Amino acid sequence: MNKKKLILIGVLAVFSLALGFFFRVFLRTVNNEKDAKESLMESTATTEMTAPADTISSVWNSDIIQDVTDTESIQNEDGASSADTSEIIAAESIISGNMQNQDPLEYVSTESSFYTYEQMMEDLDEMETDYPELMSVEICGRSLDARDIPEVIIGNRSSQRHIFIQASIHAREYINTLVAMEQIERLLVHHEDGIYNGVSYDHLLNEVCFHILPMSNPDGVAISQFGLEGIRDETLKETLNSCYVNDLNNGRTEKDRDSYWKTWKANARGVDLNRNFDAGWETYEGVSYPSSDHYKGTSPVSEPETQAIINAVHACNAILTMSYHSTGSVIYWDYGSSGEVYEQDAELAGLVSSVTGYECSSSVQSAQDAAGCSDYFVLKEDIPSVTVENGYSACPIGIEEFPSIWASNIELLPALAYNYSAL
Ligand SMILES: [Zn+2]
Q: Beta-carbon neighbour count of residue 33 at 10 Å?
């Protein structure tokens, strides 16, 4: 071996060592970045199961409806997300997270429609801490799987005009929890500078008192978001599992387990809570066994979540109730009432229609919709009530539809307060 070859080998050896070193440094940097993304993701995202691919920055001041990009609709048609996807998601979380941090008034994140019970409780806690004079959270009941059902009270408690609103009694319709939470946040954050028809929010909140259940069916929402993993109690898990097996064996579903849970509507023992109220309950047929939907339960008001709603409405002596559902962008009213409550209900439906832009639709002909929350309060307690169906697409609705839903609902609470105040 001559000298030249030796030098060449030496140079190559040094070069490959250097290359190896730089490669290791490069790898470490990439990994660090990945770790940073993941830890950020953990703090902002809600779950590993259906992580939010659909990020939209704050729609808080959504007088302007934001553009939605098609590329963000990766969300889990099949409930799975690849490693590549989760990195994209992590990167998006960082971007939108930073954007959100610039708005110190932001409590409720509208990054994803995948808004969990835990996140809701955390957000309510923060808002209650920051606005103790304006808002309080009470527990009006407890679900089968031992989740406290929060009732948010905003406004003047000694007012005679209490307005009751509940959302997500149907599990997979949990986009409406986000709507209710944004409404709560908006009333609080803008209580000084918010104005409706020339009247300040502060003034409106002195005239009325809102009682809002942002998530009436927390167990159901957990099932729709996490499948059986969302339920802690083993007996309930077994009941739920037999719901799936029965539906599959009876030809009621062809879905795989993941999509069966994802489109779940009932509570944690297969009772459709919006068919569990005592108004037309006896005549409503539905299905005769616990299932994802249309099972009315063993008796009227058999479920603790149904009781929680009724108790909350009674406790505040509500002058009207509104139930948020999805989907259809329509307002259901006219449950077969007559006389004064019919007139009052027509007035309420007309107001909600004019604010949201949704058409009104009579429920009177629809025996398939009996035993619901609004039916009950109108027919049995003479309390004007409407059912608002937000959105157009199938449930669970993705965040890409939130801006248009929010645009329809952004003024609804101030409008209700204004129209039902003594002003
Ligand atoms: Zn519904």
A: 14
Phi, psi of 239 (to 5 degrees): -60, -45
What does the pLDDT read at residue 5? 63
Looking at the structure of the chain, the number of domains it has is: 2
Compute the distance from residue 301 Cα to the ligand 1 centre, in Å. 17
Calculate how far, in angstroms, residue 160's C-alpha sits from the geometric centre of ligand 1.
29
Read off the pTM: 0.77
Residue 303 CA to ligand 1 center (angstroms) comes to 17
Residues 315 and 169 in one domain: yes
The rounded Å distance from CA 329 to ligand 1 centre is: 12
Give pLDDT < 50 ranges for the chain: 23, 25-104
Predicted pLDDT of residue 324 = 98
Q: Can you give the residue range of the structural domain that contains 9?
A: 2-97
pLDDT at 18: 55
